[in-house]
Amino acid sequence: MPTRRAFLTLSALGSLSVGAWSPFRRAEAPARPARRPVVISTWNHGLPANDAAWAILRDGGRALDAVEAGVRVPEADPTSQSVGYGGLPDRTGRVTLDACIMDEHGNAGSVAFLQHIKHPISVARLVMETTPHVMLVGEGALRFALAHGFEQENLLTPESERAWQEWLREQPDDVKAEINVENKSKGGADNHDTIGMLALDADGNLSGACTTSGAAWKLHGRVGDSPIIGAGLYVDNEVGAACATGWGEAVIRVVGSHLVVELMRQGHSPREACRRAIERVIAKNPDYREIQVGFLALNRDGEIGAYSIQPGFNFALCDEAEGNRLIDAESRL
Ligand code: SD4
Predict the structure, then answer these.
(1) For ligand 1, is residue 213 a contact (CB within 6 Å)?
(2) Rounded mean pLDDT of 187-199?
(3) CA trace torsion 163, 161, 84, 223 (10° rounding)
(4) Which of 242, 283, 247 has its CA nearest to residue 262?
């Protein structure tokens, strides 16, 4: 469980690093030992995902391999109803998946509106590594996956189908999709969404991955922020990495993860960069009290930060010193 001590440690780390980490000061400042390897990921399902990533990082493995292995855990977990197999479907009852991945060289791969494939993150990696493209969507992404030996599966579990049937019976007139409503809907804690994972390996290289079934009951064909490079995820090995969770439309409009990385490039700590990006989201969304957006960031020195609009956003952090634990993010409201 998250502890106050963990929260305070994070705040202290964040404020310490505001002045300490700056590209302009780096040259003259005495070198601070970087914390690495380290991996962070969004929400409770980040704990088992971090375990899988850590098994690679701890042996000196590459951050890219770690984030792919990490997010495959909730992708395969039917009880994780916002990622991969068992994800809640769109309003037509279809599970459609979005995912992207970035490596330390700035290479990127992405799939969107992908159906029937349990591990979209691995398809995204293949797009990155074996094609001249960044993004494949829908039918084309499915054909690409099948051609590379991925199995076509039914991803709609009985539980998710039941939830959809219930939604169909009870749906109000409004056409809003549901997302990250852990504080107000009967989706409760299970409605924690999307996994975004960022890792810094022992060699000092960063990578990130993001994968989701998106907003439950979305319009068929809707794509959120998670597969959009710069929105749901961004990695710049010279600076840091960031990922987003929450209402994807609001994240896309500010190109949220890229914004966080650029704020870190300007010298802000990960925590302060996430906070400022949340302020930008709030400024652009008059209905911000009704939505959730959370950012998570890791810089190349292994410092971390997180910030969200609503309380309730948490993430898992794993490092050598303290192992794998959940931490509550600070929030604006
Ligand atoms: C989306 N951002 O599809 C994703 C879902 C999510 O917290 O992260 N929810 O909009």
Answers:
(1) no
(2) 70
(3) -80
(4) 242
Tens digits of residue pLDDT in 163-179? 999 988 887 655 566 55
Q: Is 226 in the pocket of ligand 1 (CB under 6 A)?
A: yes
- Residue to mutate (ligand 1; options 113, 192, 226, 255; most atoms within 8 A of CB): 226
Task: Tell which wins on pLDDT, 175 or 30.
Answer: 175
pTM of the model: 0.89
Higher pLDDT: 265 or 2? It is: 265
Measured between alpha carbons, how far is 252 from 238 in angstroms, rounded to an integer? 23
Nearest C-alpha to atom 7 of ligand 1 is from which residue? Answer: 246
Q: According to the model, what pLDDT value does residue 268 have?
A: 98
- 3-state DSSP call for residue 69? helix
Structural domains present in the chain: 34-331 (3.60.20.30)
On whether the CB atoms of residues 309 and 294 are closer than 8 A, the answer is yes
Q: Count CB neighbours of 138 within 10 A.
A: 15
- Please state, in angstroms and as integers, the Cα–Cα distance from residue 297 to each residue in 41, 166, 167, 247, 260, following that order: 10, 37, 34, 18, 7
